[in-house]
Design brief:
24% of the residues lie in helices and 30% in strands. The chain is built from eight helices and 14 strands. The protein is α/β, with parallel strands linked by helices. 46% of the residues are buried. A hairpin with a 4-residue loop joins β2 and β3. The strands form three sheets. The chain has a six-stranded mixed sheet with strand order 1-2-3-4-5-6, with helices on one face. The protein has a six-stranded mixed sheet with strand order 7-8-9-10-13-14. The chain has a two-stranded antiparallel sheet with strand order 11-12. The chain has one domain: Ribonuclease Z/Hydroxyacylglutathione hydrolase-like (Metallo-beta-lactamase, Chain A, 4-Layer Sandwich), CATH 3.60.15.
């Protein structure tokens, strides 16, 4: 497995092409704005799916173009299906000066907690991690966790936007992510990567570190 990381758009949203080089297939995790460089990478593979950790505008702003270029189906948690079609929910109407008001078609597939997806020859475990948004999810592929805006290096996702809940986010992190093996590599929605073990010890928001 090879992971290509692309910080996209004005908010430098980390989006990922996760490739199975044995089969020349890939999945895309999150669909940020201005996705040209991501699409150049994705063109080297058969893209089997676009997985969204959540539907804030900076994570779905490039979805129309990525869908058109890859013809891959989209997966999202059902709590955020309507966010794709509603600029008030995805936040783009709140900050139209960034990249304009955004809406796109609904996703073809809905995700469930602890679901196992088999895509591009990869086994992907879906972890429901709401709090930053009501339908936030993280994806675990082997020893690689794609945490969206749930967990960051030394930090956590903001919860002051509509649908956010600090208590729910902390519960998601402590019950879903912190029990994972310490060597798990974390690929967040913004900023540098980290590991579960490092965050257990150093993240000031994790129980026992504050």
């Amino acid at each position: 497995m090879r992971i290509h990381t692309f910080p996209l758009g004005p908010l430098q949203t980390n989006c990922y092409v996760v490739a199975n080089e044995l089969t020349n297939e890939a999945i895309i995790i999150d669909a940020g704005m201005q996705p040209r460089v991501l699409l150049e990478c994705a063109a080297n593979y058969q893209v089997r799916a676009i997985l969204l950790t959540h539907a804030h505008f900076d994570h779905m702003g490039g979805l129309d173009l990525i869908r058109k270029k890859t013809e891959a189906p989209v997966y999202i948690h059902p709590n955020e299906q309507e966010w794709l079609t509603n600029p008030d929910l995805n936040g783009s109407s709140r900050w139209p000066m960034i990249e304009g008001v955004m809406q796109t078609d609904r996703a073809e597939h809905e995700l469930a907690d602890e679901q196992i997806l088999s895509l591009a020859g990869l086994h992907i475990r879906v972890l429901a991690t709401p709090g930053h948004t009501p339908g936030g999810v993280s994806f675990l592929i082997g020893e690689h966790l794609f945490s969206g805006d749930t967990l960051f290096a030394h930090s956590i996702g903001r919860t002051d936007l509509p649908g956010g809940s600090y208590e729910q986010l902390i519960t998601s992190i402590e019950e879903k992510l912190m029990p994972l093996a310490p060597e798990i590599q974390v690929y967040p929605g913004h900023g540098p990567g980290t590991t579960i073990g490092f965050e257990k010890v150093h993240n000031p928001f994790i129980n026992g570190n504050n």
